[in-house]
Amino acid sequence: MRKLTVADAALELGITKEAIYNRIRRGSLQSVQENDERYILLEDGELKSSEKPTVKTPKKNVVLDERYINLLISQIAELKAANSELNKDKEKLIKEKEQLLIEQRVALETIYKERDEQLKAILTLANRSLLAKPVSDVEKVTIDASFEEKMEKWRAKKDSGGDKSADEREFSDWRELKSYLRAKGFSKKEKKKIITSVKEAAGQDIDVQEDEGVLYVKKEEIEKFI
Fold it and tell me: Which of 9, 82, 108, 118 is close enough to 40 for a disulfide, judged by CB 3.0 to 4.6 Å?
């Protein structure tokens, strides 16, 4: 029987010191205490069967059936193909949506452009009709039909014994004030101010006449009241 230190016994048995002490406590190893040191007693060339290291046999590798592997490979390939088709469809839908949005935007821009051009044309024609035409042409369009009747009545009244200087005035030389202001496009506030000014001049200014509440101003002098 041999007597070994704990360290030597661990080295020989191929285990740790802690395992040596565990075996001592379990009684599977004999030991003695000498001079404050523990010694392990081992029989020459013999180890207890209970202490023999267990040899772990590796688990057998699981061999998959070749057909199963081929099936998995085939399924993976099909999934990849399906995924590729879905991506293509997705890209196609995105492109179609983008094209639709572009077409709608172009259509809207065309509509607004045409309307803008139409509006510009209308405004241009309106400006030309008011600015390019002579004043007399504008007045002929806007003066109402009662104007001639009023002027004829007024001239007949003058011919029956009125002012001789007034008799000499030609019909074309006079303008009804309200019709003239309406044809010129004055605002309500501006028309009120001009009419008030002309009323104050009626009876004092030879270029202003009033008949039955209707004001007439000589064409050449009407601008001085505006």
Answer: 9
Question: Bridge partners of 33?
Answer: 38
User: Do 119 and 169 fall within a single domain?
Assistant: no
CA atoms in the 13 A half-sphere facing the CB of 59: 3
CA distance 160 to 175: 21
With a CB cutoff of 8 Å and minimum separation 6, the contacts of 210 are 199, 202, 203, 216
69 and 127 together in one domain: yes
125 and 149 share one domain: no
Residues 111 and 148 in one domain: no
Task: Report pLDDT digits (tens) over 12-59.
Answer: 889 998 999 899 888 888 888 888 888 888 876 645 444 455 555 555
Q: What are 130's strand-pairing partners?
A: none
Domain contains 152: yes
Q: Which domain holds residue 70?
A: 63-132
Q: pLDDT tens digits for 139-190?
A: 444 444 555 565 566 556 656 655 444 444 455 678 888 888 888 888 888 8
**What is the arrangement of strands in the sheet containing 30-34, beginning at the earlier edge strand?**
2-5, 37-42, 30-34
Q: Are residues 158 and 177 in the same domain?
A: yes
Cα separation, 195 vs 190, whole angstroms: 9
pTM, to two decimals: 0.28
